[in-house]
Amino acid sequence: MQKVTGELLINKALELLDNGTVNRVLGWKRGEFAYDMTPAVFADAEELKNNFVFNDFCGANFSKYLIAETRKEGKVLVFLKPCDSYSFNQLLTEHRFDREKVYAVGIPCEGMVDISKVKKAAGDGILDIVCENDGLVVKTLYDTDKVIDCKEVLAERCVSCKSRKCVAYDELLGENGDVLDSSRFDEVEKLEKMTEDERYAFWQNELSRCIRCNACRDVCPACTCEKCVFDNPDSGVENKAVSDSFEEKMFHIIRAFHVAGRCTDCGECSRVCPQHIPLHLLNRKFIKDINEFYGDYQAGAEVGSRAPLVNYTVDDLEPSEAVQKGDADNA
Amino acid sequence: MRKCSIQALDTVFETIAEAAVLYLPVDGDNGASYKKWEKGTVMSNALNTVRSPKDFFFPQSENLMEFRTSGKTIEVIDKREEKEDFVVFGVRACDVKSFDILDRVFLNEPCDSYYADRREHGTIVSMACTRPVETCFCQTFGIDASNPAGDLSCWKTETDVYFQANTEKGEKLLAAIAGVTEESDDTAVKAQQEKTREIMKKLPLADLTTEGFGAGKTAELFNAPEWKELSQSCLGCGTCTFVCPTCQCYDIKDFKTGKGVIRFRCWDSCMYSDFTKMAHGNPRLSQLERFRQRFMHKLVYYPENNDGVYSCVGCGRCLAKCPISMNIVKVMRTIGGKADE
Ligand code: SF4
Ligand code: SF4
Ligand code: SF4
Ligand code: SF4
After folding, report:
1. Do B93 and B60 fall into the same domain?
2. Which of A100, A202, B158, B163 has its CA 20 to 30 A from that of A38?
3. Domains in chain B: how many in total?
4. What is the distance in angstroms between the Cα of A319 and the nearest Cα belonging to chain B?
5. Does residue A328 carry a pLDDT above 60?
6. B211 assigned to some structural domain
7. Range of the domain at B33
């Protein structure tokens, strides 16, 4: 469970509003249930005190909202979890928002909980969830209260968290963590070990569930085009539904290429997918390849870094070395 | 009313599948979805499917016609597929109600023959709910989860399955499975219904009402200042519209095949920036306007045009799936008649 409390964040926000540093606050707003917080802008103290929450269900990454927020008057306060801070830097690298109009407070994170895992573990009809020590006390309609270990229901991206270190902030609450030696490429390795047919079947099964709602793209801090080609009727590829079974693959492969070297692996795409498609595996494959071909590179680790794919050095790998031709890996 | 034992349900499925294609909810790693029944298929006990059953009548995309040119002639080919009779088993009360809402749109003049064709060939077997969850609010719209409509209604208890026909199609289906079912009274069904209705009262959204919405509310609600706050973090992704059983908007587009053009239609979403784009541009330029459209349509415009019927059935899918957890309940709580208790 989170070590920083909502109260601490509220007090910080009140202080910064009060002394005029910021005129509004991006935060998580209380919902109908214990787990459905909505990203919201808080402009007054009463609203903050009554409805601002921070707990194990505050997964939403606010970095992308800064593009719209910094077009408004005055400075906005944003709270950044370690993974959000990488997106923040990446957006700055791409000149997507005005740093001067943001006051960033870094907050440590112990990992966010995936509500669908809680539902599986505790049963249907969740009436309340109380975060206590390292567990969640879940009250349901049909069962006795259950105590669930937070570790058992962590979101996938938090299980394989790459870094507990906030890499961007004006001020830090609590102590900064470290870059972790994570297990995030394990699943990718499994996919690499498959035969082409197995891998094809794996992605076929996953991607055929896609309903092309575009939530993965819309939430992605690396997808910030003013007009996505897939939304542009003049592009010739704009589509709201798949016209054949290859179409959804094309959308995902193009998107993965487009964010290659820019994706910080924040995990938002997989978090929001209504069909639970493991989109992060596509991005992680790219990250892993970039690391192996060009040396370790983490998008968003600092502002202004040149990603290997948009940089040239004489030591760069020849394309022929990067591509395994035909079925060389099956031979 | 007729019944069969739980063990005999497979035989019921087999009998139905002899005369029609049978679809039922099946569990998967990521929730339940409708699948074609084959020998050995196990019906899911999940409360509801991730995608709604509207696909059966209004698929996400379908080909309408094809144009082929040769010389100076254009040949117009109807791309309609031959429909077979099919049965959808296990539809919940909320989703059954959604078909009425779609019917009012597609079957009204001018009748949508593609939709009508599927409706004619489909038989709906509903399934009463016994374990509603926190996101369920069908009762807000007067739907009784324990007494689902449909051509044939079903109740599943620990030991038996009960059937009650409501339409001619339902009678026909019930007659087809007469050999594997027997006459029964409704004592067990009544008892189950009573229990479910008690649970419904305890749901967190039980107090949600439609007060403040409905026909004639456009002027009052259209410019409500709350839309700004409600829509401010909406991503415009359209997930809510795609998982919704009653969202019915579509786009018609042409696909160049090289030899001609295939005209198809696919789901559209009022949350999208190019929705209803016309020659002069788009009438709704901001996400606030698009967001407002979705909820005004469900809660004000649709009832205005359809005898006061709301076009939300309270299935809760948008509550569970919106990436930012914004939804119709939050809209109703914020700008509607505040629930008193
Ligand atoms: S969020 Fe999921 S269902 Fe929606 S477009 Fe992305 S992959 Fe497809
Ligand atoms: S309300 Fe939610 S699901 Fe609907 S478009 Fe907005 S963000 Fe997407
Ligand atoms: S608006 Fe939401 S709750 Fe209502 S019918 Fe649609 S998906 Fe279900
Ligand atoms: S909304 Fe009502 S009818 Fe639908 S699944 Fe829930 S309880 Fe059943």
Report:
1. yes
2. A100
3. 2
4. 34
5. no
6. no
7. 2-202
Rounded CA Rg of chain A: 21
Q: How far apart are CA B98 and CA B103, in angstroms?
A: 9
Q: Is there a contact between A174 and A107 (Cβ–Cβ < 8 Å)?
A: yes
Q: Peptide bond before B110: cis, by omega within 30 degrees of 0?
A: yes
CA distance A164 to A179: 6
- Site of tokens 């709604």: B52
Residue B305 within a domain: yes
Residue B336 in contact with partner chain A when CB distance is under 8 A? no
B315: Cβ below 6 Å to ligand 4? Answer: yes
Closest listed residue to residue B181, CA positions, set B155, B157, B163, B156: B163
DSSP E strand boundaries for chain A: 24-29, 38-42, 52-53, 76-80, 102-106, 126-132, 135-140, 146-149, 171-172
Q: Which of B312, B254, B339, B293 is nearest to B101 (CA)?
A: B312
pTM above 0.90, yes or no: yes
pLDDT score, position B339: 40
Task: Please choose, from the candidates B221, B213, B274, B223, the residue with its C-alpha nearest in 3D space to the C-alpha of residue B249.
Answer: B274
Q: Tens digits of per-residue pLDDT, A41-78?
A: 999 999 999 999 999 999 999 999 999 999 999 999 99
Question: A299 alpha carbon to ligand 3 midpoint, in Å?
Answer: 38
CB atoms inside a 10 Å sphere around CB B35: 17
Find the B61 Cα to ligand 2 centroid distance in Å: 21
The alpha carbon of B103 and the centre of ligand 4 are apart by a number of angstroms equal to 20
Residue B76 CB burial class (10 angstroms; 0-12, 13-18, ≥19): exposed
Which is the closest atom of ligand 2 to the Cα of B241? 4
Query: DSSP secondary-structure letter at B62?
Result: E
Q: Would you state the structure tokens that stand for residue B39, as one six-digit string?
A: 């020998």
Q: Crossing angle of helices A247-259/A196-207, nearest 10°?
A: 100
Which domain-ending residue is among B202, B226, B249? B202
Q: How confident is the model at residue A321 (pLDDT cuts 50, 70, 90)?
A: confident
Give the distance from residue B154's alpha carbon to the nearest chain A alpha carbon, in angstroms: 22
| B341 belongs to a structural domain | no
The secondary structure of residue B275, as a DSSP letter, is T
- Residue A31 has its nearest CB partner, among B31, B268, B325, at B325
Rounded to an integer, what distance in angstroms lies between the CA atom of residue A54 and that of residue A7? 8
Q: Which residue has the tokens 């290659």?
A: A260
Closest Cα to residue A119, out of B206, B32, B133? B133
Domain end among B151, B173, B202: B202
Q: Which of A100, A126, A101, A131 shows the shortest CA–CA distance to A115?
A: A126
DSSP letter string, B110-169? SP-HHHHHHHHHEEEEE---SS--TT--GGGGT--TTS--SSEEEEE-SSEEEEEE-SHH
Same domain, B240 and B177: no
Q: What are the pLDDT digits (tens) for B64-111?
A: 999 998 888 999 999 888 789 999 999 999 999 999 999 999 999 999
List, as one string, the DSSP characters of B67-85: EEEETTEEEEEE-PPPPPP
Give SS3 for B195: helix
Which tokens hold the place of A137? 């006390």
* Secondary structure class of B192 (helix, strand, coil): helix
Q: Which two tokens stand for residue B194?
A: 């009573």
